[in-house]
Amino acid sequence: MKNDKFEGIITKAVGGNYYVAVSDGVLCCNARGLFRKEKISPCAGDNVIVSVTENTVPLICDIKERKNHIIRPPLANLDCALLVTSAVDPVPNTLVTDKLISIFESKHIEPVIVITKQDLRDCEEFAQIYRSCGFKVFYMDNPTGKGIDEIKSYVSGKLSALIGNSGVGKSSLMNHLFPGLMADTGDISKKLGRGRHTTRQVELFRLDEGGYIADTPGFSTVEVSRYGFIPKNELQYSFREFSEYLGKCRFRDCVHLKETGCAVTEALGKGHISTSRYDSYVKMCEEAEKLNEWEFKEK
């Protein structure tokens, strides 16, 4: 019996069915039971080999090595994360933004800031915090689509994901990226602080210019940790503006909080490090320490 093998990328996973984009279309596949035994779950973004035999369901027989992986929402091999935040309703939250940036930096995924609803409130001060650290910042006007060309140019050829709180305008951004998609959009629910349209699963959409965009479920402010956790002693490496000062502190085990002779806090005092970014670092250290203490008590 003839057996053909195709290389492709998983664009969607629903209830044990995996949709794999190959050179001449999309195959709906099952996955080898061996993956479950090895505790590997195929997910959107995985580069896979599909075996196709006559009169049988195509089977994912191999998953190529991942360069990175997010467990929730399940995504693999991202080049960049477009962190979508709105100028109003909800207003930008630097702590949430900094947590997401740190998590993606730790996974070697480039964080990019996209600010929506700029027509309703100026966000240049917020944007400058991140530009000064070397992050790309884009503005996107939802009603007119102004700014979409710059975003398209940046993500061309990349595997990117839209990440953001519910209600920040991800659906409107998707509509401008893919005019035929017509994702539902709605006003923010004042009670819940989230939009009526919610993406329930991860799905990759192919760009005409090459590359894919993953639309991911929105989240509330308290759900940021689902993207990952960074131990307290590793947090310093996920703040890129700290890098030139690391190793220059008086004490080798300095965690850049209240130690004397700390090069990071000295740079903060001279205005070389953003106060809001450093405040986020301190809060994240406190949260990481509490979580470690809780895990220790549980054991």
How would you describe this protein?
It is a single chain. The chain has 299 residues and is α/β, with parallel strands linked by helices. Helix content is 24%, strand content 25%. A hairpin with a 4-residue loop joins strand 12 and strand 13. The longest helix is centred in the C-terminal third of the chain and has 24 residues.
- Helix amount: 10-25%
Q: How many runs of DSSP E, i.e. beta strands?
A: 15
Biggest sheet record? 6 strands, mixed
Order of helices and strands: EEEHEEEEEHEHEHEHEEEEHH
**Beta-strand content bin:** 25-35%
The general outline is: globular
Radius of gyration over C-alpha positions, nearest whole angstrom: 21 Å
Uncertain ranges = 185-199, 293-299
Structural class: alpha/beta
Distance between the termini: 54 Å
- Count of helical stretches: 7
Average residue pLDDT: 85
Strand arrangement within the widest β-sheet reads 10-9-8-11-15-14
Write a brief structural summary.
The chain is an alpha/beta fold.
Strands, helices and their partners?
Layout: E1 3-14, E2 17-22, E3 25-31, H1 33-37, E4 47-53, E5 59-63, E6 69-70, E7 75-76, E8 80-86, H2 94-106, E9 110-116, H3 124-131, E10 137-140, H4 148-155, E11 159-163, H5 170-177, E12 188-189, E13 194-195, E14 203-206, E15 212-215, H6 263-269, H7 275-298
Parallel strand pairs: 3-5, 8-9, 8-11, 9-10, 11-15
Antiparallel strand pairs: 1-2, 1-4, 2-3, 4-5, 6-7, 12-13, 14-15
Helix pairs in contact: 2-7
